[in-house]
Specification:
Number of strands: 5
Helix content: 40-55%
Shape: globular
Radius of gyration: 15 Å
Length: about 140
């Protein structure tokens, strides 16, 4: 089993080593425009990888953006692809789109349409995944 964390905080060299030494195998960080303080940077990504940790990339501008449906999925997918390309993320990497609220059952179909649109917008270069609650993952 893999154990990981996600954080809005930047991971320093010493923090990456401490995480690794305590059984953490991956770090979830935000793939968002670099103007946002929670954005992962290229040097930080190198620090995490150099410590032997994997990186889970998560796109999230708003906790409930998926409620806006496929149109928002398209926009978010295009922006996530651009951020990934700018960061030098290898093709084939999964980008997780966050659903960071207690999604009601009535929003599950909209979430599915959002994710499909995001996947299309990634233009086959990256893979779209969903990051959210057990209810969403079970759908």
């Amino acid at each position: 089993m893999y154990q990981g964390i996600d954080t809005v905080a930047r991971i320093s060299t010493s923090a990456a080593r401490i995480l690794r030494d305590n059984g953490i195998s991956f770090v979830g960080r935000y793939l968002v425009p670099t103007t946002m303080s929670k954005a992962i940077t290229a040097p930080e990504a190198a620090t995490i990888r150099d410590a032997g940790l994997a990186i889970l990339l998560c796109w999230e501008l708003e906790s409930n953006a998926i409620r806006q449906g496929p149109e928002r999925g398209t926009v978010d997918g295009q922006r996530a692809r651009k951020c990934a390309e700018d960061l030098g993320v290898p093709a084939g990497t999964c980008i997780y789109f966050a659903c960071d609220y207690n999604i009601p059952y009535g929003d599950l179909q909209t979430a599915e349409k959002y994710l499909k649109a995001a996947q299309t917008a990634l233009s086959g270069k990256y893979v779209a995944g969903m990051y959210g609650t057990q209810k969403l993952m079970a759908y």
